[in-house]
Amino acid sequence: MLLEIITPDKKLFSGEIKSVKLPGSAGSFGVLKNHAPLISSLKKGTVKVVDEQKQNHSFAIKGGVVEVLKNKIIVLAE
């Protein structure tokens, strides 16, 4: 599953992952492989990523939008 986290300034992360936990505006939620298509707004919080090597990564965001489609996740973050 491919994840890209993009801010107006730069790309924070791009790579294959096992899972991601996102701070949704209606509550946090996780995305695993073969997740249903989804578009959601994000609030201030932390994006927690587990990559293919099972290493954890955390990214603080001020808000944004996420799209999940066909095992590709794009986070447009502030």
Describe the structure.
- With 78 residues, the chain is mainly β.
- The chain has a single domain, classed as ATP Synthase, domain 1 (Sandwich).
- The chain is 0% helix and 71% strand.
- It has no helices and 8 strands.
- Strands 1, 2, 3, 4, 5, 6, 7 and 8 form an 8-stranded mixed beta sheet that branches.
- A hairpin with a 4-residue loop joins β1 and β2.
- The protein is globular.
- It starts with a strand and ends with a strand.
- The mean pLDDT is 96.
Q: How many DSSP H or I helices?
A: 0
Ends apart, CA distance between termini: 23 Å
User: What gyration radius follows from the Cα positions, in whole Å?
Assistant: 11 Å
Question: Structural class of the secondary elements?
Answer: mainly beta
Low-confidence stretches: none
Taken from the alpha-carbon principal axes, the silhouette is globular
What order do the helices and strands follow? EEEEEEEE
Largest sheet: 8 strands, mixed
The overall average pLDDT, rounded, is 96
What is the total domain count?
1
The CATH topology corresponds to ATP Synthase, domain 1
What is the C-level CATH assignment? Mainly Beta
Percent of residues in helices: under 10%
CATH architecture: Sandwich
**What is the CATH superfamily classification?**
F0F1 ATP synthase delta/epsilon subunit, N-terminal
Strand content: over 45%
The total count of strands amounts to 8
